[in-house]
Write a sequence for this structure.
């Protein structure tokens, strides 16, 4: 009596990415109430700069009281019916903020912006606009586990992986793109586009100009779309600097061309400002038909007028946004380095990254075998024995077992240090256990060899010892 959507299992909720969250919620760490609980390191949340936002709110109490700068109440106009297009003041402030993040090298037209209830809604809306059920999008691996839900569950679209390798730092190559396109054709899937996260979740690296050029050339030759999910654009904390796909179009004189109409950006304030609960997402497209259709669809997931009003006031304070972006990047870099050093003390390395709220951690040397089964065994030990919820690479569709995404910005320094102490104890215990196993195996092997030797070998050995004694 229920729909296929209800009874099917295509949401992706059974992924280890989500299962780790469930285990954390059963036994959450608390330094006082539950010090032996599971520490949440699977949540890409930015809690490092809340104090800056809270200080702004203290100094500017009018917006939270629904009053304008003249101290007049705006409660009634915010509470009544709102247009799907959103508040002009907020859209203008948001595009200015997006330009500021990109060093003002590019500008954005607020008329091309569609507001959505977070990046999840933005990505799904673009799938509805660009693909029919059964059409495919190519995604470079590893990719955010939630895309299996966001892009596929309700839209019926398919994902074909672009297999990237650790040999070149998981960079996108032309050959990998071509191979993914061929695989889609073999599956009789019509490829409608490519979706990339820039900076990457889970790698924590921003795309190079070379990679972006490859992508633009490929969508041009194949006449397909490109979605650039840039929700981590404001988290780039070290070189190389962030390059938006819009900057590539501008540099190559492709603005206002047919190619530019097939390039779309997803953005959100969930990561850069650390406001996932506010559900502020956006689609930016140069295609009027996409903007029009997405605006209509946005009626199913609007951002409240009150939220838009408050954020328009914050983002319009350009002195504040400049200070915030700079300080937030500094704190992210400091926290990233703290995690890397902590892991290094345990003999664990990370992919060198320059952005994001996480590290792509290499634990291949801790696997019992080079298999995904061994990766899951290690992951379960880390969750249940070590008490850390991290995301295994297989949940991110990584083609190589032994990689894990570890988040560092959703906790205090003290909690991070405790997590690193747990990792060190775990790795040390593994080393001790392996040494004991190795010694036991060596002893067993020596014992078996000794028992298998014939009697004359012992007699010869005894005779040689007697001769040696006589010679002495």
């Amino acid at each position: 009596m229920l729909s296929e959507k209800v009874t099917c299992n295509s949401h992706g909720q059974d992924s280890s990415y989500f299962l780790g969250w469930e285990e954390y919620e059963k036994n959450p760490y608390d330094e006082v109430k539950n010090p032996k609980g599971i520490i949440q390191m699977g949540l890409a949340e930015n809690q490092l700069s809340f104090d800056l936002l809270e200080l702004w709110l203290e100094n500017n109490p009018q917006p939270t009281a629904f009053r304008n700068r003249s101290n007049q109440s705006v409660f009634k106009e915010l509470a009544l019916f709102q247009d799907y297009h959103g508040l002009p003041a907020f859209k203008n402030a948001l595009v200015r903020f997006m330009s500021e993040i990109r060093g003002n090298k590019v500008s954005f037209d607020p008329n091309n912006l569609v507001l959505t209830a977070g990046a999840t809604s933005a990505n799904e809306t673009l799938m509805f606009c660009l693909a029919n059920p059964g059409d495919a999008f190519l995604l470079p691996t590893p990719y955010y586990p939630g895309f299996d839900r966001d892009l596929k569950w309700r839209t019926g679209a398919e994902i074909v992986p672009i297999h990237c390798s650790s040999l070149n730092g998981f960079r996108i190559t032309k050959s990998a793109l071509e191979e993914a396109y061929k695989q889609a054709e073999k599956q009789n899937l019509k490829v409608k586009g490519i979706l990339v996260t820039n900076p990457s979740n889970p790698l924590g690296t921003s795309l190079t100009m070379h990679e972006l050029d490859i992508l633009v050339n490929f969508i041009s030759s194949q006449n397909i779309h490109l979605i650039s999910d840039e929700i981590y654009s404001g988290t780039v904390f070290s070189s190389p600097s962030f390059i938006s796909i819009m900057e590539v179009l501008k540099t190559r004189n492709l603005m206002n061309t047919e190619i530019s109409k097939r390039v779309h950006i997803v953005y959100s304030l969930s990561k850069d400002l650390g406001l996932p609960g506010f559900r502020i997402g956006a689609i930016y497209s140069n295609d009027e038909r996409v903007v029009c259709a997405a605006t209509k669809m946005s009626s199913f997931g609007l951002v409240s007028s009150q939220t838009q009003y408050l954020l328009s006031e914050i983002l319009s304070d350009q002195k504040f946004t400049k200070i915030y972006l700079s300080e937030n990047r500094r704190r992210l870099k400091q926290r990233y380095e703290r995690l890397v050093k902590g892991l290094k003390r345990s003999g664990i390395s990370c992919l060198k990254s320059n952005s994001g709220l996480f590290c792509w951690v290499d634990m291949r040397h801790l696997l019992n075998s080079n298999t995904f089964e061994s990766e899951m065994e290690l992951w379960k030990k880390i969750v249940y024995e070590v008490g850390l919820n991290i995301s295994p690479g297989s949940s991110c569709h990584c083609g190589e077992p032994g990689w894990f995404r570890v988040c560092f910005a959703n906790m205090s320094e003290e909690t991070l240090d405790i997590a690193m102490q747990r990792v060190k104890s775990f790795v040390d215990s593994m080393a001790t256990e392996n040494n004991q196993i190795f010694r036991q195996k060596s002893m067993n092997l020596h014992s078996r060899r000794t028992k298998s030797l014939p009697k004359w070998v012992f007699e010869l050995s005894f005779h040689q010892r007697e001769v040696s004694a006589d010679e002495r």
Q: What stands out?
A: The chain is about 45% helix and 10% strand. The radius of gyration is 27 Å. Residues 238 and 354 are 5 Å apart (CA to CA). The chain has three domains: 4-47+329-427, 50-321, 428-471.
